[in-house]
Amino acid sequence: MAELFSDEWMKQLKDAWNAEPEVKDRLAEIGFNSVITCGFKDEEQPRGVFVVENGECVRAGTYNGEEPDWDMRADKKDWMKWVEKGIGMAGMGMAFTTGKLKFLKGDFKGMIKDPRMAGPFVKSFGLMKQIGAE
After folding, report:
1. By the number of CB atoms within 10 A of the CB, which of 4, 45, 52, 81 ranks highest?
2. 27, 52 in Cβ contact below 8 A?
3. Tens digits of residue pLDDT in 87-110
């Protein structure tokens, strides 16, 4: 099992994303393009980057200065809880409301109100549970 947000882990997430029609195909239907970064709240830079073009993840790995459209941060213990147990729509809303999940970039409120984006977003967290992490 790879370390959370390591280059290897991000590539495993990319493979899981591209193999999941409820994520990749749903986002392709709306022409979703984005640079997504993720990491820990107490760090200046994100750890991982995920580049999506027309719903498909075309590149993932260690963050290397890319300008994100979305930058998600949480404490490691919270990330690990979501990786181990998953998180649903209600849990995600609660994590955002309580500040456990922060968006340094990106419009969480707008995204979560759009079912074409919200469903795949929540499912993408389920992919993290599939691959696990150290």
Report:
1. 52
2. yes
3. 999 999 999 999 999 999 999 989
Four-CA torsion 61, 62, 63, 68, nearest 10 degrees: 20
Report the alpha-carbon distance of residue 97 to residue 101 in Å, rounded. Answer: 8
Global confidence as pTM = 0.94
Which of 121, 63, 65, 64 has the alpha carbon at shortest distance from 89? Answer: 121
- Please state the domain extents for the chain: 7-131
User: Could you say which architecture CATH assigns to the domain 7-131?
Assistant: 2-Layer Sandwich (3.30)
